[in-house]
Amino acid sequence: MESLTQIPAVIRIDPADNVVIALRAIGADKHVAIAGQPLHVTQAVERGHKIAIQDIAAGEQVRRYGWPIGTATQPVAAGAHVHSHNLRTNLRAEEPYSYAGGQAPESARPSRGRFEGYRRADGSVGTRNQIWVIPTVGCVARTADRIAAQAACC
Asked: Domains (ranges, CATH) in the chain?
């Protein structure tokens, strides 16, 4: 079993993110590593909360999952806790939505020469071991794509 010292303190979901997520509580005035680079955490941060990895100006977008999740309401220094006290969500009470279906590119269409399933006694067919990754909000769509791609490889 892994000890807490073996688990990374933070995770950066996407290279475009300007925040990392604390994987455990981190005390003030501590140092963590992000891809081998040190970050001085200036404030205590609870597990699951965000920490700025660079200075973020008031009005600048805060990016998590490679996606703008909110706007800084005041300047945020690198190493500071990013939460409701200095972040305004980009979500609105009502978002317009429309679906414009399209045709899959030729390369994405399945081959007609092979079917990885089984035939039932009644002649119908089925498949086994399907994993569906369905994001419930747009900001995790890229993360869901990565999970699905990794699951497909194994």
From this structure: 1-91+129-154 (2.30.130.110)
